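Here we describe the complex-level prediction in full. Unlike the single-chain runs in Section 2.1, the two entities below were treated as one system.
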Amino acid sequence: MGTAAVAPWKQLLFGAIEANSHLKHSSYAQLATIGVNGRPSNRTVVFRHFQICVGIDLVEFGSVSLQIQELKLCPFSEMCWYFSDTWEQFRINGRVEVIDASSSDQTKLQRAWFANSLKSRLMYICPAPGTPYNGEQPNQEVNLDPSSGPVADYCLLLLEPEKVDYLNLKSNQRLLFSSMTSGTGEKCWTSEKVNP
Amino acid sequence: MGTAAVAPWKQLLFGAIEANSHLKHSSYAQLATIGVNGRPSNRTVVFRHFQICVGIDLVEFGSVSLQIQELKLCPFSEMCWYFSDTWEQFRINGRVEVIDASSSDQTKLQRAWFANSLKSRLMYICPAPGTPYNGEQPNQEVNLDPSSGPVADYCLLLLEPEKVDYLNLKSNQRLLFSSMTSGTGEKCWTSEKVNP
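The structure predicted for the assembly as a whole is:
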């Protein structure tokens, strides 16, 4: 077992992202949460980038249907990220913070919004996801001012890892990383090699 | 909305499996459950096959570390299966039955065990997954009699779908399938087109 102030699993994850970057689907992972009915919920999310020292930025895959309500009730989640070329699996467990129009810090939201293409931004002004389809085609002609800020439905998910379970099926190795927060609020990581 | 006795999402899933079969990772999906600590848990599983009229056969990916205990406490799960070539996502929600040495029906377990290669069967006689690694290399020389039945740690997961959320990102379509059980115990499916 070892301890480190810098998250030691990040190097492994950076390596996996780099080594699998030729595969478009390598930026997709699955995020499990607990639904408002108390049952597990699981959907594909797209990795955007790391917020330095904070966590992992995600947006929901293809739609804005993630039930934000469920994350506000129960912020715990586990993201399972499998890299198919290098046979590596990361199970990243932690809290998800929802950053939306009601959040105090609007800078992150603004930055994420403008990092989207205009086409992607249009997705957030489509009819509410999961509501019955009434035959209307989404209006492709909607004019969206490129300089307009985030629409009301737009939100960003920020996963703050607390535990990471790393499995490498090529080398048949498994490492468990756990974080602890010191009295001064600093996060410290321990790692342990376990049987795969 | 329509109703049907035969699970209508199965045709879509068969189609996706077929169309993505050239990609090895297309048989991998992520299974979310609720851990013994009440938090979400998520891991890659391998699709084996359909049990006619019953459900979806799965084995855990690369190891036997799935906390069977957590499934016995809370059998609910959601499997998220993304097909990267056809841009289709299936979120299959239902109960998972664990079939192990203590189950009354040993036929399924025996059949699944013998369908594994000898090399795969050896994985189940490695040291307990998740326990500290003591430096010992798994004994590759272990002799396993090819005619021996399942070892005590071997188990099979059977997911019985109750709801399926289908999203097609190429056609931008989303369908929700829900099941109801009739008085005579027969399952009936309804489907609804919703906004993606």
